[in-house]
Design goal:
single chain; SH3 type barrels; 2 domains; Elongation Factor Tu (Ef-tu), domain 3; 7% helix; 12 strands
Length: 176
């Protein structure tokens, strides 16, 4: 399994018991969706390694307590600390309406209500406190805040996102 075919589920943040149990900090608003998984992929080096789950339960809301098959001691659990967990993309719950996953809108066309066609979404930068659409237009990169108030419509069939950006934002990048 390749990382490109998966989504990031969370990270193993600490050991839970001397029997090899670990706690995973989930990257989701709905941790209960992942409480009864059969297996996960754990990033070890450059590989995603499948691990079967013996038992799992939610622990203090956003943490998932896992007992992985063949991880039976503190030393085994130590080897997995800070490792990232992944699941296949097809396991993502389907979103409706104007909700979307970041990976889903790469390649979508962005159009502004007032400006017109802006460009093609090349990526989402979520390293800052405010996620940003990275839009390519005329060989230049335009950064547009990923903000519910700015997004008017997400059209999955037409692969287009309609936004209403603050006046002058797009011109800042294109120098018009």
């Amino acid at each position: 399994m390749r990382k490109e075919d998966c989504f990031y589920l969370g990270k193993i943040v600490k050991k839970y018991s001397f029997k090899g149990e670990v706690l995973v900090k989930l990257d989701t608003d709905e941790p209960e969706l992942y409480e009864n998984l059969e297996s996960v992929f754990i990033a070890l080096g450059n590989n995603l390694v499948p691990f079967f789950i013996d038992t799992s339960s939610l622990h203090k809301s956003s943490l998932l307590r896992l007992k992985l098959e063949d991880v039976d001691s503190e030393a085994d659990a130590d080897a997995l600390l800070q490792s990232e967990l992944y699941l296949p993309l097809e396991m993502l719950p389907e979103l409706k309406g104007d909700q979307f996953y970041y990976h889903e809108v790469i390649g979508f066309e962005m159009e502004d209500v007032n400006y017109g066609k802006v460009g093609i979404i090349k990526g989402i930068n979520d390293a800052a406190s405010q996620p940003l659409f990275e839009v390519e237009s005329e060989g230049k990169e335009i950064l547009i805040p990923l903000n519910d108030e700015l997004i008017i419509k997400v059209d999955r069939k037409a692969k287009k996102i309609l936004v209403e950006t603050p006046e002058g934002l797009i011109d800042l990048y294109l120098g018009s």
